[in-house]
């Protein structure tokens, strides 16, 4: 399912689905929480309308709605990968050799 299709299935407004440029990680997290809250509210209203057990229910629409909601609830912010500088020290029979390397990833 395409992301815009998911947002339209859940009837989310473009205000909440458009992420502004230049957000700090905290602002990005708040925006994601607001998106998930809006999706939850709309999901509950639409699920009530489209539930197959209801007189006006539609099983296909309900299935698409559930899939879209699961995808939105699973959205996460990807962590920034900071360069990690590792210092390698090797002991061998001839003495000590050192070197450095730069990689990206988590620093544990």
Number of strands: 2
**CATH homology-level superfamily of the domain at 3-73:** DnaJ domain
- Overall radius of gyration: 23 Å
Shape: elongated
User: Secondary-structure element order, as H and E?
Assistant: HHHHEE
Fraction of residues in helices? 40-55%
Task: Determine and state the CATH class of the domain at 3-73.
Answer: Mainly Alpha
Mean pLDDT: 77
Strand order of the largest sheet: 1-2
CATH architectural name of the domain at 3-73: Orthogonal Bundle
Oligomeric state of the chains present here: single chain
Report how far apart the termini are: 35 Å
In the CATH scheme, what's the topology name of the domain at 3-73?
Helix Hairpins
Low-confidence segments, given as residue ranges, are: 103-108
Which descriptors would you attach to this protein?
108 residues, alpha+beta, Helix Hairpins, two-stranded antiparallel ribbon, 2 strands, 48% helix, 19% strand
Would you write up a description of this structure?
The structure is a single chain. The protein has about 110 residues and is an alpha+beta fold. It has a domain at about 5-75: DnaJ domain (Helix Hairpins). Helix content is about 50%, strand content about 20%. The protein contains four helices and two strands, in the order H-H-H-H-E-E. It has helices at about 5-10, 15, 25-50, 60-75, and strands at about 85-90, 95-105. It has a two-stranded antiparallel ribbon with strand order 1-2. Helix 1 (about 5-10) packs across helix 4 and helix 3 (about 25-50) packs antiparallel against helix 4. The radius of gyration is 23 Å and the shape is elongated.
């Amino acid at each position: 399912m395409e992301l815009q299709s998911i947002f339209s299935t859940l009837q989310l407004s473009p205000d909440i689905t458009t992420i502004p440029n230049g957000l700090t990680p905290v602002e990005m997290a708040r925006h994601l929480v607001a998106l998930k809250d809006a999706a939850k509210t709309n999901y509950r209203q639409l699920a009530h309308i489209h539930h197959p057990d209801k007189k006006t229910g539609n099983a296909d629409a309900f299935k698409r709605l559930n899939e879209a909601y699961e995808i939105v609830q699973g959205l996460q912010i990807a962590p920034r990968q900071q360069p990690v500088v590792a210092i390698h020290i090797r002991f061998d029979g001839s003495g000590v050799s050192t070197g450095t390397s730069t990689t990206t990833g988590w620093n544990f």
